[in-house]
Amino acid sequence: QVQVVESGGGLVQPGGSLRLSCAASGGRFVYPTVGWYRQAPGKQRDLVARMTDSGNPSYYADSVKGRFTVSRDNAENMWYLQMNDLKPEDTAVYFCSAKWGNGPDYWGQGAQVTVSS
């Protein structure tokens, strides 16, 4: 049974840091491609960062380059989005998605990130 569960998020001041976690398991292959998305109120859901199934970061949105980093803990089947130097415009609900092979995307429940002083 596929499970994708997020944790982390919260309220942070501008310039602060947060780390989101995503536990993904149960897919057909060992590792999925994991994408991190965010959706601000009234806006579409946008891709922020992606890591391939081989563990390579393959995409960062221009708005987060140099500030956000994706990583993976192979032993724990955990993926992380480290967010540094956060800005108010980073405020959104963040989602992770996991895709094994050519299968569908499985989504986490979302985590609210609020950047405010």
Compile the SSE list and pairings.
Blueprint: E1 3-7, E2 10-12, E3 18-25, E4 33-39, E5 46-51, E6 57-60, E7 68-73, E8 78-83, E9 92-99, E10 105-107, E11 111-115
Parallel strand pairs: 2-11
Antiparallel strand pairs: 1-3, 3-8, 4-5, 4-9, 5-6, 7-8, 9-10, 9-11
Walk me through this protein's architecture:
With 117 residues, the protein is mainly β. Helix content is 0%, strand content 52%. It contains no helices and 11 strands. A hairpin with a 5-residue loop joins β9 and β10. It starts with a strand and ends with a strand.
Total number of beta strands:
11
**Mean pLDDT value:** 95
The level of helicity is: under 10%
Distance between the termini: 41 Å
Low-confidence stretches: none
Give, in order, the helices and strands: EEEEEEEEEEE
Principal-axis shape equals globular
CA radius of gyration is 14 Å
- Fraction in beta strands: over 45%
Helix/sheet category: mainly beta
Largest sheet entry: 7 strands, mixed
